[in-house]
Design a protein that fits this description.
The complex is a heterodimer of chains A (148) and B (282). Chain A has 148 residues and is an alpha/beta fold. Chain A contains 5 helices and 7 strands. The chains are: A alpha/beta (148), B mainly alpha (282). Chains A and B meet through α1 and β2 of A and α2 of B. The complex binds iron/sulfur cluster.
Chain lengths: 148, 282
């Protein structure tokens, strides 16, 4: 009974307080601007408890933008591995979802999911801040299903 | 006996009070910035989430340092509400501060290292101010004991106005609020990622945060000494003091450590000495 209560409390707090870290894998800056717009007073992601922490060790949500290439795939994996479980990954924009318009380039690997497991894909080039926030909140809901 | 009971209650309730205060702090900050902001109970969610996360301590020394920091923060609150000696409380405060610096230094990350160095300079800046302010209490009341100072028959603010301001400086540094948030940036400012807190994660970070809440309560308790004659006066003074902290946090940019030392020492020590002269001349 007590354990059940603690479990429920932990799950609720996870959903209520997701901290994000954002990695730009060489995007054209379009997606980054839109992502940062979510943090401004206009969209105010902090309403949902989302804080931008800039430190993978404190983060719960990993927002990836831009194309993944042979250079930055190590950085991507490194940042992901430094995040303590439970964690979710949100891929933002066509570039990060699939390589986007750059997918044919010789140095581009494709989407972020080639390197790390992606939970939510936010489509668009660039996506609107509303859909980024929606993606982040959808990702947060996944904590409810995670049992770790 | 009743003092012991009060102290134990304070130790149990202090984190809740501290969390609530930092929740209100965040709400006010959001209001200043024209945002809705997180709910007031947000810090509770944050801490429960952090406690439930995977434990990824960098090394065992870090764990010990976090525990020492937390226990010393708890002890300062306990001793204060027990009505103990201000000097003893000051020493325990210092042990906590040193443990925190050591914890940050135990990790090899450059962010953590720079944060630790800056934290050390911060400790160096505020320690003399706090100690000399406590000496100011002694000069007026003739005692370092909290329980004795609390029975003083008129508000100490009238005798110690400049020391109140100097202590305000010291405690802004202690709370790591702007313009003195140089060792651990918070929220959007990412110059040193998270400074001395960079390598803490999960439960460790939660313990640091809880220790910080104890510190908030302790700091407000120290300020309550300035108006210990009436409860209403104390509440108003504490509210105004903390509100001023939040406003200053919001309207100032981060300073450099050189500016901090070059500004806080002359200004703070100068005010304390003028206040000493004022006390001794009457
Ligand atoms: S998806 Fe479009 S806007 Fe986003 S990084 Fe790629 S090209 Fe730029």
């Amino acid at each position: 009974m007590f354990k059940k209560f603690i479990n429920k409390l932990t799950l609720t707090s996870r959903v209520g307080s997701p901290w994000m870290v954002h990695l730009d894998c060489g995007s054209c800056n379009g997606c980054d601007i839109e992502t940062w717009a979510c943090l401004t007073p206009v969209y105010d992601m902090e309403r949902f408890g989302i804080i931008n922490v800039g430190n993978p060790k404190h983060a719960d949500i990993f927002l990836v933008t831009g194309t993944v290439n042979h250079r930055n795939k190590h950085v991507l994996a490194n940042v992901y591995n430094q995040m303590p479980a439970p964690r979710v990954v949100v891929s933002i924009g066509s570039c990060s979802n699939s390589g986007g318009i750059f997918r044919e380039c010789y140095n581009v690997l494709g989407g972020a999911d080639k390197i790390i497991p992606v939970d939510i894909y936010v489509p668009g080039c660039p996506p609107k801040p509303e859909s980024i926030i929606d993606g982040a909140l959808q990702a947060v809901k996944m904590f409810k299903n995670a049992n770790s | 006996m009743s003092n012991l009971l009060l102290a134990l209650t304070a130790v149990i309730l202090a984190p809740f009070a501290g969390a609530l205060i930092s929740g209100i702090d965040r709400k006010f900050t959001a209001w200043f910035q024209g945002r809705v902001g997180p709910p007031i109970y947000q810090p509770f969610l944050d801490i429960i989430k952090l406690l439930g996360k995977e434990c990824m301590a960098v090394n065992s020394r870090q764990r010990i340092c976090v525990m020492v920091y937390l226990i010393s923060a708890m002890t300062t609150v306990f001793l204060f509400f027990l009505g103990s000696d201000l000097l003893l409380i000051f020493f325990i405060l210092t042990i906590g501060a040193v443990a925190f610096v050591l914890g940050a230094m135990s990790a090899p990350s450059p962010f953590s290292q720079i944060g630790a160095q800056r934290e050390l300079i911060q400790v160096l800046t505020y320690e003399p101010l706090i100690l000399l302010s406590f000496a100011g209490f002694f000069l007026v009341t003739g005692s370092f004991s909290v329980s004795y100072i609390q029975t003083w028959d008129q508000p100490l603010l009238f005798n110690l106005p400049l020391i109140y301001i100097a202590l305000g400086f010291a405690l802004t540094i202690k709370l790591r609020k702007s313009p003195f948030d140089i060792s651990a940036s918070h929220h959007g400012h990412q110059e040193i990622v998270k400074g001395s807190l960079t390598d803490y994660s999960g439960p460790q970070l939660a313990f640091v945060e809880i220790a910080h809440w104890y510190e908030i309560v302790f700091i407000l308790a120290v300020f309550s000494l300035f108006w210990s004659t009436s409860l209403a006066g104390m509440a108003i003074l504490l509210f105004l003091t903390y509100f001023a902290e939040i406003v200053i946090d919001n309207i100032t940019a981060r300073s450099t450590w050189r500016w901090m030392v070059a500004y806080v020492w002359p200004a703070g020590l100068g005010m304390i000495i003028i206040n000493y002269v004022f006390i001794l001349s009457i």
